[in-house]
Protein backbone atom coordinates (compact mmCIF):
# COMPACT_ATOMS: atom_id res chain seq x y z
CA UNK A 1 0.00 0.00 0.00
CA UNK A 2 1.45 3.33 -1.02
CA UNK A 3 1.81 5.72 1.88
CA UNK A 4 1.26 9.37 0.93
CA UNK A 5 3.18 11.77 3.14
CA UNK A 6 3.04 15.57 2.91
CA UNK A 7 6.24 17.03 1.46
CA UNK A 8 6.03 19.81 4.01
CA UNK A 9 5.76 17.32 6.88
CA UNK A 10 8.75 15.36 5.53
CA UNK A 11 10.77 18.56 5.26
CA UNK A 12 9.86 19.56 8.83
CA UNK A 13 10.74 16.12 10.20
CA UNK A 14 14.08 16.11 8.34
CA UNK A 15 14.89 19.60 9.60
CA UNK A 16 13.99 18.71 13.18
CA UNK A 17 16.02 15.47 13.12
CA UNK A 18 19.09 17.29 11.73
CA UNK A 19 18.64 20.06 14.31
CA UNK A 20 18.47 17.51 17.14
CA UNK A 21 21.60 15.69 15.89
CA UNK A 22 23.58 18.95 15.67
CA UNK A 23 22.33 20.16 19.04
CA UNK A 24 23.10 16.73 20.52
CA UNK A 25 26.70 17.01 19.32
CA UNK A 26 27.00 20.52 20.71
CA UNK A 27 25.53 19.41 24.02
CA UNK A 28 27.84 16.47 24.17
CA UNK A 29 30.92 18.61 23.72
CA UNK A 30 29.95 21.77 25.62
CA UNK A 31 26.96 20.91 27.78
CA UNK A 32 26.03 24.57 27.40
CA UNK A 33 22.69 25.96 28.60
CA UNK A 34 21.64 27.58 25.34
CA UNK A 35 21.91 24.29 23.49
CA UNK A 36 19.80 22.52 26.08
CA UNK A 37 17.19 25.29 25.79
CA UNK A 38 16.99 24.70 22.03
CA UNK A 39 16.67 20.94 22.55
CA UNK A 40 13.67 21.51 24.82
CA UNK A 41 12.08 24.01 22.45
CA UNK A 42 12.63 21.76 19.45
CA UNK A 43 11.03 18.84 21.30
CA UNK A 44 8.08 21.06 22.24
CA UNK A 45 7.69 22.16 18.63
CA UNK A 46 7.79 18.54 17.45
CA UNK A 47 5.20 17.44 19.98
CA UNK A 48 2.88 20.37 19.25
CA UNK A 49 3.23 19.67 15.51
CA UNK A 50 2.46 16.00 16.17
CA UNK A 51 -0.61 16.71 18.26
CA UNK A 52 -1.90 19.07 15.56
CA UNK A 53 -1.33 16.52 12.83
CA UNK A 54 -3.08 13.85 14.84
CA UNK A 55 -6.50 15.46 14.86
CA UNK A 56 -8.97 14.28 12.17
CA UNK A 57 -9.63 17.82 10.94
CA UNK A 58 -5.93 18.52 10.63
CA UNK A 59 -5.38 15.32 8.67
CA UNK A 60 -8.10 16.35 6.26
CA UNK A 61 -6.69 19.86 6.04
CA UNK A 62 -3.24 18.37 5.50
CA UNK A 63 -4.49 16.33 2.53
CA UNK A 64 -6.24 19.34 1.02
CA UNK A 65 -3.28 21.62 1.52
CA UNK A 66 -1.00 18.98 0.00
CA UNK A 67 -3.14 18.90 -3.15
CA UNK A 68 -3.32 22.68 -3.30
CA UNK A 69 0.40 23.10 -2.69
CA UNK A 70 1.11 20.61 -5.46
CA UNK A 71 -1.09 22.50 -7.88
CA UNK A 72 0.46 25.75 -6.78
CA UNK A 73 3.98 24.35 -7.34
CA UNK A 74 2.92 23.17 -10.82
CA UNK A 75 1.77 26.69 -11.55
CA UNK A 76 -1.87 25.58 -11.78
CA UNK A 77 -4.43 28.07 -10.61
CA UNK A 78 -8.19 27.86 -10.32
CA UNK A 79 -8.43 30.29 -13.19
CA UNK A 80 -7.23 27.48 -15.47
CA UNK A 81 -10.71 26.11 -15.06
CA UNK A 82 -13.13 27.09 -17.80
CA UNK A 83 -15.38 29.97 -16.68
CA UNK A 84 -19.07 29.32 -16.59
CA UNK A 85 -21.36 31.21 -18.97
CA UNK A 86 -22.83 33.31 -16.21
CA UNK A 87 -19.39 34.52 -15.10
CA UNK A 88 -18.42 35.28 -18.70
CA UNK A 89 -21.52 37.42 -19.19
CA UNK A 90 -20.88 39.27 -15.96
CA UNK A 91 -17.31 39.92 -16.89
CA UNK A 92 -18.29 41.14 -20.34
CA UNK A 93 -20.86 43.52 -18.89
CA UNK A 94 -18.51 44.74 -16.20
CA UNK A 95 -15.59 45.47 -18.51
CA UNK A 96 -17.74 47.08 -21.18
CA UNK A 97 -19.58 49.45 -18.90
CA UNK A 98 -17.16 49.89 -16.04
CA UNK A 99 -13.55 49.21 -17.02
CA UNK A 100 -12.31 50.63 -13.71
CA UNK A 101 -14.04 47.77 -11.88
CA UNK A 102 -11.57 45.29 -13.22
CA UNK A 103 -8.51 47.33 -12.43
CA UNK A 104 -8.14 48.96 -15.84
CA UNK A 105 -7.26 52.22 -14.18
CA UNK A 106 -9.95 54.39 -15.74
CA UNK A 107 -10.61 57.49 -13.69
CA UNK A 108 -14.13 58.00 -12.48
CA UNK A 109 -15.63 60.20 -9.87
CA UNK A 110 -16.51 58.05 -6.87
CA UNK A 111 -19.57 58.95 -4.85
CA UNK A 112 -18.35 57.18 -1.73
CA UNK A 113 -15.09 55.41 -1.09
CA UNK A 114 -14.84 53.03 1.81
CA UNK A 115 -11.29 54.07 2.56
CA UNK A 116 -11.79 57.82 2.81
CA UNK A 117 -10.06 58.49 6.08
CA UNK A 118 -10.40 61.43 8.42
CA UNK A 119 -7.13 63.25 7.97
CA UNK A 120 -8.01 65.49 10.93
CA UNK A 121 -7.77 62.46 13.26
CA UNK A 122 -4.14 61.74 12.32
CA UNK A 123 -1.88 62.17 15.33
CA UNK A 124 -4.67 62.39 17.92
CA UNK A 125 -5.55 59.82 20.60
CA UNK A 126 -6.52 56.46 19.20
CA UNK A 127 -9.82 54.81 20.07
CA UNK A 128 -8.79 51.20 19.84
CA UNK A 129 -9.31 47.83 21.47
CA UNK A 130 -8.38 44.19 21.19
CA UNK A 131 -11.36 42.09 20.24
CA UNK A 132 -11.68 38.38 20.75
CA UNK A 133 -14.55 36.10 19.83
CA UNK A 134 -14.28 33.11 22.15
CA UNK A 135 -16.12 30.34 23.93
CA UNK A 136 -15.92 29.65 27.66
CA UNK A 137 -14.13 26.43 26.74
CA UNK A 138 -11.33 28.47 25.10
CA UNK A 139 -10.27 29.93 28.45
CA UNK A 140 -6.89 28.23 28.84
CA UNK A 141 -5.84 28.97 25.26
CA UNK A 142 -6.96 32.61 25.32
CA UNK A 143 -5.32 33.19 28.71
CA UNK A 144 -1.96 32.12 27.31
CA UNK A 145 -2.46 34.29 24.26
CA UNK A 146 -3.51 37.37 26.23
CA UNK A 147 -0.65 36.99 28.70
CA UNK A 148 1.80 36.77 25.81
CA UNK A 149 0.17 39.81 24.15
CA UNK A 150 0.51 41.74 27.40
CA UNK A 151 4.18 40.80 27.74
CA UNK A 152 5.10 41.49 24.14
CA UNK A 153 2.99 44.60 23.55
CA UNK A 154 0.18 45.81 25.72
CA UNK A 155 1.92 46.28 29.06
CA UNK A 156 3.46 49.33 27.32
CA UNK A 157 0.23 50.69 25.81
CA UNK A 158 -2.69 49.51 27.94
CA UNK A 159 -5.33 49.19 25.26
CA UNK A 160 -8.65 47.73 26.47
CA UNK A 161 -10.08 44.35 25.51
CA UNK A 162 -13.52 43.30 24.32
CA UNK A 163 -14.47 39.63 24.56
CA UNK A 164 -17.51 38.47 22.61
CA UNK A 165 -19.44 35.24 22.87
CA UNK A 166 -22.71 33.80 21.57
CA UNK A 167 -23.28 32.45 25.10
CA UNK A 168 -22.87 34.31 28.40
CA UNK A 169 -19.31 34.26 29.72
CA UNK A 170 -18.78 32.25 32.93
CA UNK A 171 -17.76 34.22 36.04
CA UNK A 172 -14.57 32.08 36.13
CA UNK A 173 -13.75 33.10 32.57
CA UNK A 174 -14.12 36.78 33.38
CA UNK A 175 -12.13 36.58 36.59
CA UNK A 176 -9.25 34.70 34.99
CA UNK A 177 -9.01 37.18 32.10
CA UNK A 178 -9.12 40.22 34.39
CA UNK A 179 -6.35 38.68 36.39
CA UNK A 180 -3.87 38.69 33.48
CA UNK A 181 -4.52 42.01 31.75
CA UNK A 182 -3.14 45.45 32.46
CA UNK A 183 -6.11 47.38 31.09
CA UNK A 184 -9.88 47.45 31.18
CA UNK A 185 -11.93 44.52 29.89
CA UNK A 186 -15.52 44.21 28.72
CA UNK A 187 -17.45 41.03 28.04
CA UNK A 188 -20.27 41.08 25.52
CA UNK A 189 -23.09 38.73 24.63
CA UNK A 190 -23.80 38.52 20.91
CA UNK A 191 -27.43 39.36 20.07
CA UNK A 192 -29.27 36.35 18.70
CA UNK A 193 -30.09 38.17 15.48
CA UNK A 194 -26.35 38.30 14.72
CA UNK A 195 -25.77 34.58 15.28
CA UNK A 196 -28.71 32.88 13.60
CA UNK A 197 -30.18 32.18 10.18
CA UNK A 198 -31.59 35.13 8.25
CA UNK A 199 -35.18 34.42 7.17
CA UNK A 200 -34.28 33.92 3.49
CA UNK A 201 -31.94 31.00 4.22
CA UNK A 202 -33.29 27.52 3.51
CA UNK A 203 -32.11 25.64 6.61
CA UNK A 204 -32.77 22.20 5.10
CA UNK A 205 -30.58 23.02 2.15
CA UNK A 206 -27.87 24.29 4.53
CA UNK A 207 -28.10 21.09 6.60
CA UNK A 208 -27.75 18.94 3.48
CA UNK A 209 -24.63 20.85 2.48
CA UNK A 210 -23.11 20.14 5.89
CA UNK A 211 -23.76 16.42 5.50
CA UNK A 212 -21.76 16.15 2.29
CA UNK A 213 -19.21 19.00 2.43
CA UNK A 214 -15.76 17.49 2.19
CA UNK A 215 -13.52 20.23 3.55
CA UNK A 216 -12.34 21.38 6.95
CA UNK A 217 -15.25 22.49 9.17
CA UNK A 218 -17.56 21.47 6.28
CA UNK A 219 -19.92 19.74 8.71
CA UNK A 220 -19.93 22.55 11.27
CA UNK A 221 -22.92 24.84 11.73
CA UNK A 222 -21.27 26.99 14.42
CA UNK A 223 -18.20 27.61 12.24
CA UNK A 224 -20.48 29.08 9.58
CA UNK A 225 -22.18 31.37 12.12
CA UNK A 226 -18.72 32.39 13.32
CA UNK A 227 -17.53 33.28 9.79
CA UNK A 228 -20.71 35.24 9.10
CA UNK A 229 -20.40 37.02 12.44
CA UNK A 230 -16.77 38.01 11.85
CA UNK A 231 -17.69 39.19 8.36
CA UNK A 232 -20.78 41.21 9.11
CA UNK A 233 -21.42 41.80 12.79
CA UNK A 234 -18.55 42.04 15.27
CA UNK A 235 -18.01 45.70 14.32
CA UNK A 236 -21.70 46.40 15.03
CA UNK A 237 -21.61 45.06 18.60
CA UNK A 238 -22.56 47.81 21.05
CA UNK A 239 -19.30 47.37 22.98
CA UNK A 240 -17.38 48.17 19.79
CA UNK A 241 -19.25 51.39 19.08
CA UNK A 242 -16.81 53.63 20.95
CA UNK A 243 -13.80 52.36 18.99
CA UNK A 244 -12.35 53.24 15.60
CA UNK A 245 -9.67 50.52 15.51
CA UNK A 246 -9.33 46.91 16.58
CA UNK A 247 -6.74 44.16 16.84
CA UNK A 248 -8.25 40.71 16.48
CA UNK A 249 -7.02 38.11 18.97
CA UNK A 250 -7.62 34.37 18.68
CA UNK A 251 -6.94 31.66 21.26
CA UNK A 252 -3.65 29.74 20.87
CA UNK A 253 -2.03 32.46 18.81
CA UNK A 254 1.26 33.99 19.88
CA UNK A 255 3.43 37.03 19.31
CA UNK A 256 7.02 35.95 18.67
CA UNK A 257 8.60 39.41 19.05
CA UNK A 258 8.30 42.53 21.18
CA UNK A 259 6.32 45.28 19.54
CA UNK A 260 7.64 48.53 20.93
CA UNK A 261 5.57 51.10 19.04
CA UNK A 262 1.88 51.95 19.24
CA UNK A 263 0.54 49.93 16.32
CA UNK A 264 -2.89 51.61 16.31
CA UNK A 265 -1.38 55.07 16.32
CA UNK A 266 1.01 54.04 13.58
CA UNK A 267 -1.94 52.84 11.47
CA UNK A 268 -3.83 56.05 12.08
CA UNK A 269 -0.88 58.37 11.47
CA UNK A 270 0.09 56.55 8.28
CA UNK A 271 -3.38 56.46 6.77
CA UNK A 272 -3.59 52.66 6.89
CA UNK A 273 -6.91 50.87 7.17
CA UNK A 274 -6.06 47.17 7.17
CA UNK A 275 -2.97 45.38 8.50
CA UNK A 276 -2.05 41.68 8.33
CA UNK A 277 0.78 39.30 9.18
CA UNK A 278 0.06 36.09 7.25
CA UNK A 279 -1.50 35.58 3.84
CA UNK A 280 -2.50 32.28 2.28
CA UNK A 281 -4.62 30.68 -0.44
CA UNK A 282 -8.18 29.63 0.37
CA UNK A 283 -9.61 26.16 -0.28
CA UNK A 284 -11.57 26.69 -3.45
CA UNK A 285 -14.21 24.15 -2.46
CA UNK A 286 -15.31 26.42 0.42
CA UNK A 287 -16.08 29.40 -1.87
CA UNK A 288 -17.24 28.16 -5.30
CA UNK A 289 -19.49 31.18 -5.94
CA UNK A 290 -17.91 33.89 -3.79
CA UNK A 291 -16.14 35.48 -6.72
CA UNK A 292 -19.09 35.47 -9.12
CA UNK A 293 -21.22 36.96 -6.31
CA UNK A 294 -18.55 39.61 -5.76
CA UNK A 295 -18.47 40.43 -9.45
CA UNK A 296 -22.23 40.86 -9.47
CA UNK A 297 -21.80 43.38 -6.66
CA UNK A 298 -19.02 45.43 -8.24
CA UNK A 299 -20.81 45.40 -11.56
CA UNK A 300 -23.81 46.96 -9.83
CA UNK A 301 -21.69 49.27 -7.65
CA UNK A 302 -18.61 50.29 -9.61
CA UNK A 303 -18.24 53.49 -7.61
CA UNK A 304 -17.27 51.56 -4.51
CA UNK A 305 -14.14 50.22 -6.15
CA UNK A 306 -11.05 52.24 -5.24
CA UNK A 307 -9.03 53.66 -8.08
CA UNK A 308 -5.71 52.27 -6.84
CA UNK A 309 -7.18 48.98 -5.71
CA UNK A 310 -5.40 45.67 -5.21
CA UNK A 311 -7.27 43.67 -7.83
CA UNK A 312 -3.85 42.64 -9.11
CA UNK A 313 -3.13 40.92 -5.79
CA UNK A 314 -6.34 38.85 -5.66
CA UNK A 315 -6.69 38.11 -9.36
CA UNK A 316 -4.10 37.05 -11.93
CA UNK A 317 -6.32 37.88 -14.89
CA UNK A 318 -7.63 41.38 -14.17
CA UNK A 319 -10.65 40.18 -12.27
CA UNK A 320 -11.92 37.26 -14.35
CA UNK A 321 -11.11 34.84 -11.58
CA UNK A 322 -10.08 34.97 -7.92
CA UNK A 323 -6.63 33.55 -7.24
CA UNK A 324 -7.67 32.53 -3.68
CA UNK A 325 -5.14 34.84 -2.01
CA UNK A 326 -6.34 36.33 1.25
CA UNK A 327 -5.07 37.85 4.46
CA UNK A 328 -5.35 35.38 7.31
CA UNK A 329 -7.95 37.11 9.44
CA UNK A 330 -7.14 35.43 12.75
CA UNK A 331 -4.76 38.41 13.06
CA UNK A 332 -6.01 41.77 11.92
CA UNK A 333 -5.26 45.32 12.96
CA UNK A 334 -7.78 47.38 11.11
CA UNK A 335 -10.16 50.28 11.00
CA UNK A 336 -13.72 49.67 12.18
CA UNK A 337 -14.75 52.59 9.99
CA UNK A 338 -13.90 50.47 6.99
CA UNK A 339 -16.40 47.73 7.91
CA UNK A 340 -18.94 50.40 8.84
CA UNK A 341 -18.60 52.12 5.47
CA UNK A 342 -21.57 52.00 3.08
CA UNK A 343 -19.43 50.12 0.57
CA UNK A 344 -18.63 47.27 2.94
CA UNK A 345 -22.09 47.10 4.49
CA UNK A 346 -23.68 46.88 1.05
CA UNK A 347 -21.13 44.27 0.01
CA UNK A 348 -21.81 42.18 3.11
CA UNK A 349 -25.59 42.42 2.59
CA UNK A 350 -25.17 41.31 -1.01
CA UNK A 351 -23.09 38.29 0.06
CA UNK A 352 -25.45 37.48 2.91
CA UNK A 353 -28.47 37.51 0.58
CA UNK A 354 -26.69 35.11 -1.76
CA UNK A 355 -26.47 32.62 1.12
CA UNK A 356 -22.90 31.38 0.65
CA UNK A 357 -22.09 31.62 4.35
CA UNK A 358 -24.48 28.66 4.77
CA UNK A 359 -24.81 26.97 1.37
CA UNK A 360 -21.04 26.97 0.98
CA UNK A 361 -18.59 27.84 3.74
CA UNK A 362 -17.44 31.35 2.97
CA UNK A 363 -14.74 32.40 5.41
CA UNK A 364 -14.45 35.86 6.89
CA UNK A 365 -10.83 35.90 5.70
CA UNK A 366 -11.54 35.88 1.95
CA UNK A 367 -14.55 38.17 2.48
CA UNK A 368 -12.51 40.76 4.41
CA UNK A 369 -9.58 40.42 2.03
CA UNK A 370 -11.58 40.83 -1.16
CA UNK A 371 -13.28 43.89 0.31
CA UNK A 372 -9.99 45.44 1.48
CA UNK A 373 -8.39 44.70 -1.88
CA UNK A 374 -11.20 46.27 -3.89
CA UNK A 375 -12.61 49.10 -1.75
CA UNK A 376 -9.36 50.40 -0.27
CA UNK A 377 -6.50 51.87 -2.16
CA UNK A 378 -3.39 49.75 -2.17
CA UNK A 379 -1.40 52.03 0.15
CA UNK A 380 -4.07 51.67 2.87
CA UNK A 381 -3.24 47.97 3.26
CA UNK A 382 -0.16 47.06 5.28
CA UNK A 383 1.87 43.93 5.89
CA UNK A 384 3.68 43.82 9.27
CA UNK A 385 7.04 42.10 8.72
CA UNK A 386 7.98 43.09 12.28
CA UNK A 387 5.03 41.50 14.12
CA UNK A 388 6.24 37.95 14.69
CA UNK A 389 3.08 35.86 14.89
CA UNK A 390 1.93 32.27 15.14
CA UNK A 391 -1.44 30.66 14.44
CA UNK A 392 -1.23 26.94 13.97
CA UNK A 393 0.41 25.82 11.74
CA UNK A 394 2.04 28.94 10.23
CA UNK A 395 4.49 31.59 11.44
CA UNK A 396 5.28 35.13 10.50
CA UNK A 397 8.90 35.31 11.67
CA UNK A 398 11.08 38.27 10.59
CA UNK A 399 13.74 37.21 8.10
CA UNK A 400 15.46 40.55 8.52
CA UNK A 401 18.04 39.96 11.25
CA UNK A 402 17.96 43.49 12.61
CA UNK A 403 14.17 43.32 13.04
CA UNK A 404 14.50 39.88 14.66
CA UNK A 405 17.11 41.18 17.13
CA UNK A 406 15.37 44.44 17.93
CA UNK A 407 12.11 42.60 18.66
CA UNK A 408 13.88 40.01 20.83
CA UNK A 409 12.08 37.42 18.72
CA UNK A 410 11.89 33.83 19.86
CA UNK A 411 10.89 32.27 16.52
CA UNK A 412 12.99 30.39 14.00
CA UNK A 413 13.19 32.40 10.73
CA UNK A 414 13.61 29.12 8.84
CA UNK A 415 9.99 28.35 9.75
CA UNK A 416 8.65 31.63 8.39
CA UNK A 417 5.68 31.08 6.08
CA UNK A 418 5.77 34.39 4.17
CA UNK A 419 7.76 33.27 1.15
CA UNK A 420 6.71 29.65 1.03
CA UNK A 421 4.81 28.78 -2.15
CA UNK A 422 1.43 28.39 -0.46
CA UNK A 423 1.62 31.86 1.09
CA UNK A 424 0.61 34.94 -0.92
CA UNK A 425 3.03 37.33 0.77
CA UNK A 426 5.54 36.91 -2.04
CA UNK A 427 2.81 37.99 -4.48
CA UNK A 428 1.98 40.90 -2.16
CA UNK A 429 5.61 42.07 -2.28
CA UNK A 430 5.60 41.73 -6.07
CA UNK A 431 2.30 43.56 -6.42
CA UNK A 432 3.47 46.44 -4.24
CA UNK A 433 6.99 46.37 -5.67
CA UNK A 434 8.47 46.06 -2.18
CA UNK A 435 12.04 45.02 -1.51
CA UNK A 436 12.11 41.44 -0.20
CA UNK A 437 14.18 40.55 2.87
CA UNK A 438 17.48 38.79 2.42
CA UNK A 439 17.07 35.03 2.33
CA UNK A 440 13.52 34.92 0.92
CA UNK A 441 14.65 32.90 -2.08
CA UNK A 442 15.60 29.85 -0.06
CA UNK A 443 11.88 29.22 0.50
CA UNK A 444 11.37 28.86 -3.22
CA UNK A 445 14.19 26.38 -3.96
N1 LIG B 1 -18.10 32.26 20.98
C1 LIG B 1 -17.75 31.45 19.99
N2 LIG B 1 -16.58 31.62 19.40
C2 LIG B 1 -16.23 30.79 18.39
C3 LIG B 1 -17.07 29.74 17.95
N3 LIG B 1 -16.44 29.09 16.94
C4 LIG B 1 -15.27 29.71 16.77
N4 LIG B 1 -15.12 30.74 17.63
C5 LIG B 1 -14.00 31.69 17.73
O1 LIG B 1 -13.83 32.22 16.42
C6 LIG B 1 -12.47 32.36 16.11
C7 LIG B 1 -12.15 31.50 14.89
O2 LIG B 1 -12.43 30.14 15.17
P1 LIG B 1 -11.32 29.01 14.96
O3 LIG B 1 -11.91 27.73 15.43
O4 LIG B 1 -10.03 29.44 15.55
O5 LIG B 1 -11.24 28.98 13.38
P2 LIG B 1 -9.96 28.87 12.44
O6 LIG B 1 -8.90 29.81 12.91
O7 LIG B 1 -10.43 28.97 11.06
O8 LIG B 1 -9.53 27.38 12.66
P3 LIG B 1 -8.41 26.74 13.63
O9 LIG B 1 -7.38 26.23 12.69
O10 LIG B 1 -9.17 25.66 14.34
O11 LIG B 1 -7.91 27.80 14.56
C8 LIG B 1 -11.70 31.95 17.36
O12 LIG B 1 -11.44 33.12 18.09
C9 LIG B 1 -12.67 31.05 18.09
O13 LIG B 1 -12.45 31.10 19.47
C10 LIG B 1 -18.34 29.57 18.61
O14 LIG B 1 -19.14 28.71 18.29
N5 LIG B 1 -18.62 30.46 19.62
MG1 LIG C 1 -8.10 29.88 14.79
Automatic annotation (TrEMBL):
Positions of the catalytic residues: 332 (nucleophile)
Membrane topology label = Single-pass type II membrane protein
Q: Where is this region: Disordered?
A: 56-82, 96-121
Q: Which domain of life is it from?
A: Eukaryota
Q: Which residues fall in a compositionally biased region of kind Basic and acidic residues?
A: 57-82, 96-116
Pfam families, per database record:
Glyco_transf_15
An annotated Gene Ontology molecular function: alpha-1,2-mannosyltransferase activity
Write out the transmembrane intervals: 12-30
Query: Into which family does the record put it?
Result: Belongs to the glycosyltransferase 15 family.
Q: Protein name, please? A: LALA0S04e04324g1_1
Species per Swiss-Prot/TrEMBL record: Lachancea lanzarotensis
